[in-house]
């Protein structure tokens, strides 16, 4: 069984004494493998995990969906958390960091000098092994990191966000490092996204190809539908009409109007910090 717990989101469940921030962090416990997907903007994921009784000292994999600050700026607090446990003589496991090779790239936008990861690749490597890959990576028998997402649709994933530092200088950033996870459940794929800068439909299509499974049981995470264009919203709705997912848990960077529209083509469910979902593995 795979257990999923939402540690950080822009919202919390009603009557849950947890805290939210504009970021995302998800804990995935799949049989004997524990995966921490994204780290939010601060140390909030650690605080919420403690309230929820979740032990983050034994994480096997740390997966970063992409470089942006609302998903990676918790890396410094996580390194400090692991280091302090070592100082105190407490048990600790150094996770393997899995992400796209460009996840540590410097990104700037407008008057903000840095919206990318604050910890360099070299510094992170002192604390955890790294598997930076553009291709898919198996984290467990049924859980897969999808690698770089092909941009096949013309209605999404085409707009740069800021400027990325490269060896050739600054270039418009299409967030090529944006990736996601897919879990093969007995009901179909459970797709876990960060921000979906690559396009939520592109991500789902790639997951279906990588996993050899067309059924979609659930999609959980940010859909990057923040005041989307008419063509993006229309294309997304038509895509979901065709694939008919069993459920959607759209959160983080998905605005209210987009959620209302999505509810017209799929079963949209409430999301917030403290969300707990359970899925049985594909037999």
Task: Characterise this structure.
The mean pLDDT is 97. Strands 7-5-4-3-2-1-16 form a seven-stranded mixed beta sheet. The chain has a six-stranded mixed beta sheet with strand order 8-9-12-13-14-15, with helices on one face. The protein is globular and about 55 Å long. The protein starts with a strand and ends with a strand. The chain has helices at 44-51, 69-72, 75-87, 121-125, 200-211, 230-243, 256-262; strands spanning 2-8, 25-30, 33-37, 61-63, 96-99, 107-108, 130-132, 137-138, 143-145, 163-166, 169-172, 180-185, 188-193, 216-222, 248-251, 276-279. The protein has 283 residues and is α/β, with parallel strands linked by helices.
In brief:
The chain is an alpha/beta fold. Helices cover 22% and strands 25% of the residues.
How are the SSEs placed, and which strands pair?
Elements: E1 2-8, E2 25-30, E3 33-37, H1 44-51, E4 61-63, H2 69-72, H3 75-87, E5 96-99, E6 107-108, H4 121-125, E7 130-132, E8 137-138, E9 143-145, E10 163-166, E11 169-172, E12 180-185, E13 188-193, H5 200-211, E14 216-222, H6 230-243, E15 248-251, H7 256-262, E16 276-279
Parallel strand pairs: 3-4, 4-5, 5-7, 13-14, 14-15
Antiparallel strand pairs: 1-2, 1-16, 2-3, 6-10, 8-9, 9-12, 10-11, 12-13
Question: Which tags fit this structure?
Answer:
283 residues, alpha/beta, Metallo-beta-lactamase, Chain A, seven-stranded mixed sheet, six-stranded mixed sheet, 7 helices, 22% helix
CATH superfamily: Ribonuclease Z/Hydroxyacylglutathione hydrolase-like
Rg on CA atoms, Å: 18 Å
| Alpha-carbon distance between the two ends | 11 Å
The unreliable regions are none
Mean pLDDT: 97
Binned strand content: 15-25%
Query: What is the number of helical segments per DSSP (H or I, 4+ residues)?
Result: 7
The total domain count is: 1
How are strands sequenced across the largest beta sheet?
A: 7-5-4-3-2-1-16
* CATH arch. level architecture: 4-Layer Sandwich
Which class in CATH terms? Alpha Beta
Number of strands: 16
Give the CATH topology.
Metallo-beta-lactamase, Chain A
The chain-level structural class is: alpha/beta
Question: In this structure, how is the largest beta sheet organized?
Answer: 7 strands, mixed
Give the helices and strands as they follow along the chain: EEEHEHHEEHEEEEEEEHEHEHE
Task: Tell me the helix content.
Answer: 10-25%
